[in-house]
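Take just one protein record:
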Amino acid sequence: MVTFFKTLNVSRLVRLSRKNGFKFNMLMGYCIGRAASGIKEFYTLPVGDKLMQYNSIAVNTIVANSQGEVSSCDVPFSTDLKKFNEDYLRLTKEVAATCRNNDLMESMVIGTSAMAQYDIDGAVGMYAGIFNNPFMIWGKYRKGFFKTTLTVSFQFHHTQMDGAHAARFLDGIQNEINNLKI
């Protein structure tokens, strides 16, 4: 596993979130999905000694559930922001209430973990071969005078993609944030 760190300018995402009533983490997930959907390596995943091919991707989010614990929720990626938002809200609400994970086995899943209440600079989690999915982690965003930034860590399996693909993906997230149309 390899981990990259990048600081994103999320000023536009914060503004769009507040202005349009969208959850910030949903918009991040949407931008992650948009950036990943244009890179063919995100449709494959190393599983054991094989490289599995998928036709779709999903973005995972960690949900605080009704028992005070966390559950995992895979949201199928759609290029339609309205559809992605509807799925995100419906599925995260369902997972929070039932305390049952929503796992999409037919999609290649990009994991995320947002610890928005904590001021962290990044995180590295070694999966040791159990989970090979690409994974993003972030804490709270930082407000400055002229921009709001968010430092993310992106962990990926080197069998799935090369560093250049991962760097292009991170640049793609920034591009999606900059060009998001609501």
Remarks:
- The radius of gyration is 16 Å.
- Helices lie at 11-20, 24-37, 81-98, 163-179.
- The longest strand covers residues 148-156.
- The beta strands are 2-9, 44-47, 50-53, 57-64, 70-76, 108-114, 135-138, 142-143, 148-156.
